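Example record for the data management plan.
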Amino acid sequence: MSMQDTAFPNTPKGSRFGWPRPARLEEFKTRLEAEDLPTNRVVFQGLNQDLPIIRVPIDLPKYRMANGRTASLQVEHLALNPDLRSDLFTGDPELWDAQEVQHELLLKLGRASDLNGYFQDPAHQQVDPLLLDENGFIVNGNRRLSTWRQLLHDEPEKYGHFEHIEVVVLPHATEKDLNRLEAQLQIDKDIRADYSWDAQANMLVAKMERDGIKAEELCKLYRMKDAEFAQLLDMRAYADEYLRSREKANMWSEVSGQEHTFQRLVQHRSKLSGVGRKEVFKEAAFALIDEPTAVGRLYIAIPDLAANLDKVVDRLAAKLEGEATTSDDGLDELFGTGKTDDNTGAKEAGLINALKDSAQRSRAREEIADVLEAERQLKKDVKKAGFLLDQCAKANSYLTAAAKDGLRAETKLTGVSKQLDEIEARVATIRAYLV
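Corresponding structural encoding:
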């Protein structure tokens, strides 16, 4: 059987996922000729329109590929199944293979929001009609339709009430009209509850790239402030970069639960000065995202990382020294050449290379976690009346251990003199205060 035969069955009920277009249009014409049809009010094309409700077989409608909720799932599905045609979701939406995959993706979303559990109770039946465009593609109600279809398919006797469903067929409309309706019906009410942040971001990007809608217009459609829109796209850009750096391109489910993490990353990176420091912060944040349990709640750890970045840089430079080799990747051009008058840039470039090295990331993550935990504890201790004595006691303990166990032939001496000079300066400050 050819793809054409598979996509367009000979009889209207030959497909679970939508009748052929001529059959759909003929069914609409026949049903809409009935008298005294109930109506449903829809604000569409700038007007309050009372449109007739008709009952059609559940197999008749087709899923809309430009469905915002499935934006991330679609690109991830293609990444997981590279043998599929690349235009599965952007080509002809009539084709069986696209409709079948979209059905599975919508089912996944329906299970995640417990639509499936809700409609498994036969007492819960359809209340609001689904909205279809003039060609029979679902504009609003894709998840509900997929759930009802699956329940009916699996247990036809129990869910026979879903054999026919109520729909409203919208008048002729442009894609802009449909986008505006989608925003009105879905985004205003429940995007933050039903859309993952990455799905929302990928939907917006798709509308710009696929439909040619400008950012300004999207902000109006979805009632987003310019700064909110820009931040969301920045979050998506960092998440995309993170996934690609871990060889997980388009695997959006890996970051769906990290909305606040990428939000904090965007917010705090923008406050840092210097290209090198920004890059170190980003790569360090990526290392923490790999193993979030290492630092607890990431949306707290990311701001802490930014606040203590200099201490983190110093610790990593000391611990990874000799390992953070500089490669010919263009970093020198951005951060310095490593000459004596540009030690800071060379250090940052070396750390970035180290953080990009999967073999060193684990150790770097441990060191970062130690610094952040030490700083958190320090904030707690600083409020105590005995803080000064406690810290001096700790310093004394560390120096005692250094003098006892660190004076060995194999001990690395580089940087020790500088540390002692700084310690002596701090001691002088404290002694001056005691006088």
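Summary line stored alongside the record: Strands lie at 39-44, 47-57, 130-132, 138-140, 164-169.
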